[in-house]
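Need residues for this backbone.
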């Protein structure tokens, strides 16, 4: 039997190891990101347009999480690699909120540490015992100064076959 209170007591507050991104912040990925999202601000598109141009905030996670995207392998979600006991095998991202505290510049080296903030069970249409996991990514620069925090809500749920194996169904 899955004991959510025991899981909460053991896991809330735990953190992953701090992971330093493989590559520094670079202009060309900033330019490509801006073109993809329709940001035509010349300070992001033109190298040297203004000295010390910061990265647009929406590009910060791209640089902080670069090591999570090895070729051919699906992106890693470090909090899921921690071994949290879960009922289901399926995941989806339900919500993401970012707080951008300081500018990030070309040449900065970013690192991320993910902390489990909350966990609870709440029924959904796909699983009456869906597990909700709230995490917070703390992104720091090369000086170990926090530049950004991202709060993420993950939903863990069981497949119809897993529900059936557990003697449950969804109406």
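Answer:
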């Amino acid at each position: 039997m899955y004991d959510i209170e025991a899981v909460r007591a053991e896991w809330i507050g735990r953190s992953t190891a701090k992971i330093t991104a493989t590559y520094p912040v670079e202009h060309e990925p900033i330019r490509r990101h801006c073109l993809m999202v329709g940001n035509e601000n010349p300070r992001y598109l033109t190298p040297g347009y203004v000295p010390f141009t910061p990265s647009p905030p929406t590009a910060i996670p791209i640089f902080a999480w670069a090591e999570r995207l090895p070729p051919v392998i699906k992106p890693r979600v470090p909090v899921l690699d921690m071994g949290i006991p879960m009922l289901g095998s399926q995941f989806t991202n339900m919500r993401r909120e970012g707080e951008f505290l300081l500018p990030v510049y070309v040449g900065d080296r970013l690192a991320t540490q993910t902390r489990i903030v909350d966990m609870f069970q709440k029924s959904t249409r796909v699983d009456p015992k869906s597990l909700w996991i709230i995490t917070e990514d703390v992104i720091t620069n090369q000086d170990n100064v926090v530049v950004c925090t991202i709060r993420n809500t993950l939903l863990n749920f069981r497949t119809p076959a897993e529900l059936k194996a557990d003697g449950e169904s969804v109406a």
